[in-house]
From TrEMBL:
InterPro entries: ADH-like_C, ADH-like_N, ADH_Zn_CS, GroES-like_sf, NAD(P)-bd_dom_sf. It comes from Mola mola (Ocean sunfish). This is Enoyl reductase (ER) domain-containing protein. Pfam families: ADH_N (PF08240), ADH_zinc_N (PF00107). GO terms for molecular function: S-(hydroxymethyl)glutathione dehydrogenase [NAD(P)+] activity; zinc ion binding. Residues 205-335 form the Alcohol dehydrogenase-like C-terminal domain.
Amino acid sequence: MATAGKVIKCKAAVAWEPNKPLVIEEIEVAPPEANEIRIKIVATALCHTDLYHLLESMQPQGFPTVLGHEGAGIVESVGPGVSEYQQGDKVIPLFISQCRQCHFCKSPRSNQCVKAWAGIARHDAMAPPTSRFTCKGKELLQFVGTSTFSEYTVVNEMAVAKIDPMAPLDKVCLLGCGICTGYGAAVNTAKVEPGSTCAVFGLGAVGMAAVMGCKAAGAKRIIGIDINPEKFEKAKVFGATDFVNPKDHDKPISQVLIEMTKWGVDFSLECVGNVSVMRSALESCVQGYGVSVIVGWTDLRDIAIRPNQLISGRTWKGSTFGGFKGRDAVPQMVKVYMDKKLMLDEFITHHMTLDQINDAIELMKQITDFSTLQQIIMFR
């Protein structure tokens, strides 16, 4: 391509400081260096984690930055040493790398990678130490190593999934975060069993994907918990069989679920990012063998539990990106979607342009605290 090897000037939504509107700027994107890939972003979605960094954690060392981590695009050029990818490939950037060489990558027990951005940078900045972005003479951070709120981005090859060239990028971009996160938490981390009873706390996009994963795993009863009753009809589309609104009860939600199921649920998934809800999800599980998975992201507060809740036999687990090893698993998830065995279109509620990014953020800010993500907003 004519741009290969050259600095590209393009449009990006820049977060100059926390808790302030994003600014559409012209930025410079340098060519990829060794083992890097420059990608033209075709579609991206707004995820609550972007808002968490901007509006909740508000760590000053994490700015200025280009947010966005749920995108898909086309390889524009590759740097020295890259052989697996070439110009024109359709790809999904990954916020969790897979180097395929470290002890985590070689283990089937984890999808972590010691070479990921979080392993070489201050985690509270949520970015690697350097980027290929500059604006007005200042280097911009690359959010979780992806920064898909830019028309072009440069990503290390170990954080890129090459996908089916026929895949619609404005749909499969959702597999870059939320859908894999919720779905995989059910099938990979919880290992939901056929005939089991599950509870999903928070019916945002991640929660809906968790519901979908529970159904795919063969769960008999899937209880959705959210304070917005309007979400239940949507949750039924993905496989929910019951709905509980905590506001309808004057007792702890864990007690409500135990009474509904006699002993408690076999599996619970917390898809909110709220430490109180995490505890409720654990306490909702049947003692002896219940499994509860923390899926929602937060790093602002400690969590507490009475030891006997675990001593009695419950298992408490955490899940990042649904336990998927991205370079290997995301192409397979794209195939499942292409085979019409996975819903993606149903998650999309708005189509907007990058220029409307602040309008999209305002839409998402209207969501209640109980739900991590009510809608996915697509930029094209």
